[in-house]
Amino acid sequence: MTAVLAPTPVDEAVADTLDSRIRRDPNNFRVLSGDRPTGPLHLGHYVGTLANRVRLQDLGVPVTVVIADYQVITDRSDPGPLRDRVRTLVAEYLAAGLDPDRTVIFPHSAVPALNQLMLPLLSLVTDAELRRNPTVKAEALASRRPLGALLLTYPVHQAADILGMDGTVVPVGRDQLPHLELTRQIARRFNDRYGQVFTPPEPLLTGTPNLLGTDGAKMSKTRGNTIALGDTADRTAEIVRAAQTDSTRRITFEPAARPQVANLLSIIGELTGRDPRAVAEEIGDGGAAALKRRATEAINDELAPLRSRRAELIVDPAFLDGVLLDGTARATSVAGAVLHRVRRAMGMDYLG
User: Fold this and answer.
1) Residue ranges of the domains in the chain?
2) 160/293 Cα distance (integer angstroms)
3) Is 314 strand, coil or helix?
4) What fold is seen in the domain 233-313?
5) What backbone torsions phi and psi does residue 45 show, to the nearest 5 degrees?
6) Is residue 272 a contact partner of residue 216, using CB atoms and an 8 Å limit?
7) What is the Cβ-side half-sphere exposure of residue 263, based on CA atoms within 13 angstroms?
């Protein structure tokens, strides 16, 4: 029976200094990040994750991006047009600036070693721990279906991706720290039981605010309240015009009192590198219409090069498939070596 160890919470002060350590010695870290191919990426992905992946890549950090295709079926019976969605993800990654020569991009269903690694990792967690996981609880509630075994074990599948790719850094928002903690616990428990094999991954805290969707709720593909990276400039303007604000004409940056207005100001600030308070001062009594015009301009100006490159890539599926094949080969090599270390530590390397 697996001993239940007391969790060791992530030290946020330590996490906050990680970025400076990465800048000093980028080759000493391996970043692991990923997405589920449930639909096109949107503005929240661009601001929250894509831009940061490109930044880390350009600093010289080895970056791996997992397309978590198996995880699509954790909470839905129909995975949808996965091939097209995976290709679209790759096109959007490259259009945003990820370089397949420097960043490994692959679907985890294509690397058997990662899925084989799940078995020994599952032996290190309890049913209660899985059910307490915030992601499992949220997805189970959203799916409105009985809790499936794959959804229940989703956190361990995530751990297998991170540890199986030798990930030592995982970019997360502050609200996602509990999600990463189980992976860290699994790494420590394996090391305690079988000897030192894994490095518990560290969280790289992102300073990006959590952007709201156009309806004032959390930005989400499933809610349909997003601006997709592939939307046209006109479609973007239409979406922003319909975004919720409030009836106060003077524009001020007050996230608690005026969240929808603050959200549009935050988007402008993130995309232009300006303080949203200064943007609010400039708009002043221009009201919601002026605010939305400014937001539309900022979004379309920032995304114009990405959208142009995305359109070029999306019509070349052979090239996109080649990126995946190359990334899968590189990921298979890394995951195979990790699985061998795991089997050797467990005394299961019977055949070498």
Assistant:
1) 12-208+316-345, 233-313
2) 45
3) helix
4) Tyrosyl-Transfer RNA Synthetase (1.10.240)
5) -65, -40
6) no
7) 21
Q: Give the total residue count for the chain.
A: 352
**CA distance to 174, 237, 282, 283, per residue, from 250 (Å):** 31, 21, 11, 8
pLDDT in tens, 4-47: 333 444 444 554 588 899 999 999 999 999 999 998 899 989 98
Q: Which residue has the tokens 């909470």?
A: 75
d(CA 147, CA 150): 9
Question: Which residues have C-beta within 8 Å of that of residue 50, sequence separation ≥ 6?
Answer: 41, 92, 93, 96, 97, 98
Token digits of residue 280: 């609010």
Query: What are the distances in angstroms from CA 321 to CA 36, 71, 77, 78, 317?
Result: 17, 20, 26, 23, 6
Q: What is the pLDDT of residue 12?
A: 47
- Specify the CATH superfamily of domain 12-208+316-345: HUPs (3.40.50.620)
3-state secondary structure 220-258: CCCCCCCCECCCCHHHHHHHHHCCCCCCCCCCCCCCCCC
